[in-house]
Automatic annotation (TrEMBL):
Protein name: Succinate--CoA ligase [ADP-forming] subunit alpha
Amino acids binding substrate: 174
Organism of this sequence: Streptomyces afghaniensis 772
Involved pathway(s): Carbohydrate metabolism; tricarboxylic acid cycle; succinate from succinyl-CoA (ligase route): step 1/1
Cellular compartments per GO CC: cytosol; succinate-CoA ligase complex (ADP-forming)
Residue stretches making up the CoA-binding domain: 4-115
Keywords of this entry: Ligase, Nucleotide-binding, Tricarboxylic acid cycle
Subunit structure: Heterotetramer of two alpha and two beta subunits.
Gene3D superfamilies (UniProt xref): NAD(P)-binding Rossmann-like Domain, Succinyl-CoA synthetase domains
GO terms for MF: nucleotide binding; succinate-CoA ligase (ADP-forming) activity; succinate-CoA ligase (GDP-forming) activity
GO biological process, one term: tricarboxylic acid cycle
Catalytic activity: succinate + ATP + CoA = succinyl-CoA + ADP + phosphate; GTP + succinate + CoA = succinyl-CoA + GDP + phosphate
Length: 310
């Protein structure tokens, strides 16, 4: 099992023929992702040959010919695609997601950063109305290790396992995956750190809670906004599986926007300490560093195993 992305997922790449799209499509293919097509109206009818010499666990292949379609709808009709990964520039990202939602795709993973907030509001709202889940924008995507990788997350730093990970931060996603590589993950979801994102911590908490092959959930947050506080309230009311958290930004100066955290910290609102306290009040173990967080995960897993033996 996994959430949102499995080995059966058929993936389109909007912007596949651009430099970033080409690079990461090759990496996705090497990870075993079933990339069934690219989308570029100016190159419709062409085929791109990807040389994928190094494949994880024998997945993928070399060379791999991927057709280019003029629209998402064309690609879906020809291939049965149910996922699209968006690598188009910020100015065209809104149109790309609206097109994907109009085509009825189930999942749109928006990697693009620098998208205006009003565009993100527009396309996330529209996609929800159309029944399309958006992950991102400004995110690394998601990976179900050993099955499929939609985005830019390195596929070779962990293995399949029973931990679910949801994170605002791309870099911290990678670090926790590596720290816990000997245990492994069911699915890792980088939701992005922009002020407006399509899929939230709460969405992923609910999905991992319902996934029978996820035993423990790791939640990574950042200063700014109240997403983590709302996630804490959800954990308290709805999540029975153990949750371990980490909040980036304990040393951030008050009143300053930091990186892509998405909000100015004001008083106690949005601070790392406030988020930590809210999560701990909901029964979440919160680490002070990524390594400590990984150790907390291992301890909670060992405790769960001990309870099962009794």
């Amino acid at each position: 099992m996994a959430i949102y992305l499995t080995k059966e997922s058929k993936v389109l790449v909007q912007g596949m023929t651009g430099s970033e799209g080409m690079k990461h499509t090759r990496r996705m293919l090497a990870a075993g992702t079933n990339v069934v097509g690219g989308v570029n109206p100016r190159k419709a009818g062409h085929t791109v040959d990807f040389d994928v010499p190094e494949c994880l666990e024998g997945l993928g292949g070399a060379p791999t010919a991927v057709p280019v379609f003029g629209t998402v709808a064309d690609g879906m009709r020809a291939t049965g695609a149910d996922v699209t990964v968006v690598f188009v520039p910020p100015a065209f990202a809104k149109a790309a997601v609206l097109e994907a939602a109009d085509a009825g795709i189930g999942l749109a993973v928006v990697i693009t950063e620098g998208i205006p907030v009003h565009d993100s509001v527009a396309f996330t709202t529209y996609a929800t109305e159309k029944g399309t889940r958006v992950v991102g924008p400004n995110c690394p995507g998601l990976i179900t290790p050993g099955q499929s990788n939609a985005g830019i997350i390195p596929a070779d730093i962990t293995k399949p396992g029973r931990i679910g990970l949801v994170s605002k931060s791309g870099t911290l996603t990678y670090q926790l995956m590596y720290e816990l590589r000997d245990v492994g993950f069911s699915t890792c979801v980088g939701i992005g750190g922009d002020p407006v994102v399509g899929t939230t911590h709460i969405d992923c908490l609910a999905a991992f809670q319902d996934d029978p092959d996820t035993d423990l959930i790791v939640l990574i947050g950042e200063i700014g906004g109240d997403a983590e506080e709302r996630a804490a309230a959800y954990v308290r009311e709805h999540v029975t599986k153990p949750v371990v958290g980490y909040i980036a930004g304990f040393t951030a100066p008050e009143g300053k926007t930091m990186g892509h955290a998405g909000a100015i910290v004001s008083g106690s609102s949005g601070t790392a300490q406030a988020k930590k306290e809210a999560l701990e009040a909901a029964g979440v173990s919160v680490g002070s560093t990524p390594t400590e967080t990984a150790n907390l995960v291992l301890a909670r897993l060992e405790a769960c195993l001990g309870e099962q033996r009794q």
